[in-house]
Amino acid sequence: MNKLQLATLVGLSITLTGCFESRKNTEQLCEANAALRCDALNVNDGQCRIPRTDLIWHRFEILKNPSDQNSIKEYGIIAEYEKCLTLAAQIQPLTQSERKSKRFTTVVHLKEEQQRIIAELQNSTSPQALYFLWSQEGDTDAQRSFLQLEGTPALESAEMQYALATFYTSRDADKTLRLLNRSLELSDGKNINIDAIKSLASLNLQQNRRELAYIWSQIAAEFEVQTASKNNHRLLYGFTEDKYQQLDDIASDVHNALEDGVYRTTMIPAL
User: pTM of the prediction?
Assistant: First the structure.
């Protein structure tokens, strides 16, 4: 996968942790819903409680609202739990052989669950499933099917425009920039894709569009993501103080528009 690919569908923001108080009844939830398959999740282990709890509650959400998107999210949560449990199994003393054995058994189960999800998604034609299979599994047929949806309403969402941008990153810089901007235009202000903002900063800098690169780096900083230290600004950009002030004002307006879900590419004038 190239560096711009979003883990949006699998990555980053995949947990459902929230307040611990709201999860005190996980045991009761398991007892009332055999379909959650809690007995295979090593529920009595004190290690890796958070990802395990996230997985159980997300499975409950899938029971109420099955979808490709929720299956993809489940895959990501399983990956987090597997990673945690694999580490826990390795660091425990050898005298606790029974506990280690249960952890390894659960890890095997989690791997099987991931394969189950992949098999289910292979029967789907949704753009989310196609992108997941392409980006995570290297499925070239899924990639081809996904790209055939370009220009259709199926990809007219913030997530899918960003996903499409990942294909063009090393092929067409201008098109990648347009897709990243379109992704942000389609954002509702609630789940702003910070990776898209960082990519706009770095790609514009690569294209020697220094004003745009600076604007997007300042927007990233507004979201508490620093792309370059202030001490490096003069080395990277070399603007006058008046120019910095002009660009800072634009960045502030764009940041506010993104938070309000009303960003439009035309907000940034030709520079």
Answer: 0.79
